[in-house]
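Researcher: Quick sanity check before group meeting.
Model: Go ahead. Protein one:
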Amino acid sequence: MIDFLNQAKSLAENLRQWRRDFHRHPELGFQEVRTAGIVAEHLRALGVEITTGVGRTGVVGLIEGARPGRTVLLRFDMDALPIHEETGLPFASQNPGVMHACGHDGHTAIGMAVAQLLVETAHQWPGKVKLLFQPAEEGLGGALATIEDGALDDPTPDAAFALHLWSQLPAGQVVIQPGPLLAAADHFEITLRGRGGHGAQPHTTIDAILVAVQAANALYSIVGRNIPPSEMAVLSIGTFHAGKAFNVIAEEVALSGTLRTFNADVREILIQRMDAILSGVTQAHGADYQLIFHEHTPAVHNDPHMTEIAKKAARGLVRESDIVQTTPIMAAEDMAEIMNRAPGCYIFLGAAPPQSAPEPHHSPRFDIDESQLPLAAALMAAMAVTFLEEKTSG
C-alpha cells in the first residue's frame, strides 16, 4: 500500500493554510464561486482534467492511473452556512452572517490535498479517480444538481466514498460501519386557518394560534406513541409564525419543520399521523389546514462491501482500536443521492478541538482540530486506491 499518510503529513501546512483561507471567505450554497475557482486553479496546476460549473458551482476532476480499471468517486462539499461566527479565531469569517460551521472548509482543503496525493502516485494504481467538489450540501440539493449536470457520467463511478470531519468525536477516531448512518430528511409546511377578530371578543373568532398550539403538542406525541421503540425517528417544528397585532385574534398560522427517518414505513406512519392529527384538531375547532411535504434527501446507507474496503484502507493508517461505530445520526447528508447510484461508504473522522470543549456542528462557535487534516486526506486517497486495486486483482 502506498504510504499516503507520510505524504499527506508533508502537506500539513498547505492543508492548514487552505482551510483557513476558505474559513475566512465562506460562501453559501450555489455561491461558492471563489472557493470553486481556487479548487479549479489548483487542479489545473496539477495537470488534472477538470470540468467547472457542474451543478452551477461544482468542480469535477478526473485523474487516470497507470493501467485500465474501474472508476471511483470521492466527494468533497464546499458550502458554508448562514450563521454569524462567534469563534474569535484569527481567521474568522470576513463575510458577515456566513460561516463554515460544519467543517466543509476542511473538506475542500482535504480534497485539494487528495488530488495532489493521487497525481503524485498515479503511476502506482489502476483505473480512474473522479473528484467531485460539490456545492450546496446544506439542504439545497447540491448533490442532485451535480448529478443532473453529468457529475456521474463519462465515466460512471463504480463506487463512491466521502468523509466528514466530526467535532463530537475524539480526534483520530474513525467511524466506519455498514448500514444506516445518516437519516432521510423531509421538510414540512403547515398552514392553519381560522377566523380572525377582535382580541376582546374571542368568542366570535376561530383562534388559529389556539388551534396551532394544540396541533403542535399533538404532533410531538407521534414519535413516542406511534413509532416502535426499535425504530429511530424525529419530528421537529422549527418555525411558528402568527399574528400582526397584540389586540387581534390571528386568522392564520404557518408552521414548518423536519422529519428524519431511516425506514420508509416509519416515514409513512409519520405522514399519515400528522395528517390525521391536523384533520382532527382543525375539525374540532372549525378551522382548516394545509400540509405540504418536500423530500430533501434519502438516508445514507453504507454498502457492506464498500465498508470493508474503507476499513481495510483505514487499518493501514490508524490503530484498530480507533476504528469505531456509532449510533446512526439523525442529521441528513445529500451524499445519499450519489450512494443511491453507486455503492459507497461514508465515514466520520474525529476532529474535536484539543483545547476546548467541542461545539456541535452548525454552532457559531464551531471549530475543528486541524491536525487531523492530513489523516483525512490519507484516508480518502487510501479508500480510492484500495477499491481500485481490489477490483483489478479480483
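Researcher: Fine. The other one?
Model: Protein two, sequence then structure:
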Amino acid sequence: MGRVTERRRVIRIRDGAVSARPDTLVAEEPLEIRLNGRPLAITMRTPGDDFALAAGFLVSEGVLGAASELQSIVYCAGATADGYNTYNVVDVKLAPGVAVPDITLERNVYTTSSCGLCGKASLDAVRTQARFPIADTPPVRLEPELLASLPDRLRASQRVFDRTGGLHAAALFSPEGELLDIREDVGRHNAVDKLVGRALQDDRLPLSRCILLVSGRASFELAQKAVMAGIPVLAAVSAPSSLAVDLAAESGLTLVGFLRGSSMNVYAGDERIALRSGV
C-alpha cells in the first residue's frame, strides 16, 4: 500500500548552518482489530503485514494456536461514515467451532506502540493460556558467539530503518544462526506479532526451534508473546523488565539482555547457553 513511510518538511541545523529539506519518517496509523465482527483492540502500528499482526495478536491472547482455527482476515469496507475503506480496520473470523474467550470481547483493549497489552500483565494469565509449554520443546544449546553475531545481522536487514531511523525490528533465527524472518514496526510488540502471525498463517506454530531477537528492551509483553508462540529463547539488545525475568524463569524461557558486541546478560534459562566458566 506504500504507506510505510511518509515525507515531511524539516528544518535542519548542522554546525550553525540552517536549511530546509524533506525528511523520510516512519508512518504510524491506528489499526482496529475486530473479532467475528466485534471490536476487540486498537493498536498504533506501521501499516503493512496487518493480517499477520492481527493473527499474531490473537496468538498472544490465547485465541489462536493453529492455522486451522483461522477462517479469514479481511479489511473492513465502509469503515468510515462515508463508506471509505481506510485499510485501518481488519476483521478476523475464527473457524467454526473455535471458542472465543469471554475476556477478549469484554475488555476492549487499547494498546499503544510502546505499552503492548496494557492491563493484562499477569503471570497467571500466561500460565493458564499457553498452549506450547517451553519445557517440552526440543533441547537447544547455543554458543555465546552465535548469539553475539545476531544483532548485526538484524540491523543489516532493517531496510526501512535505514531510511527513517524510527523503527523497531524483531527477527527469528534458527539455532544455527540462519535468519528465518524479520519484521519492522513503530511498535516493538507489533513487530513480534507480525512474526508470530505469519508463522501461524504458514502453520509453523509452535516456533520451538527458534531464537527471537528484538531491537529494543525485553518487556513483559514480549516475553509473553514468545511464550505463547512456543519460542524457547528471547534475546534483546537492551534491558529486560523485572516481570519479564519472572515470566521467563517461571515458564522456562531463556532470556538474554544487553546483547551488544561480545557481551550479554543471561537472566533466565542459562541451561540453553554453552557457558564455559565462572558459573
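Researcher: One line on it for the slide.
Model: Helices lie at 50-60, 102-106, 123-129, 144-156, 159-164, 188-201, 220-228, 242-251.
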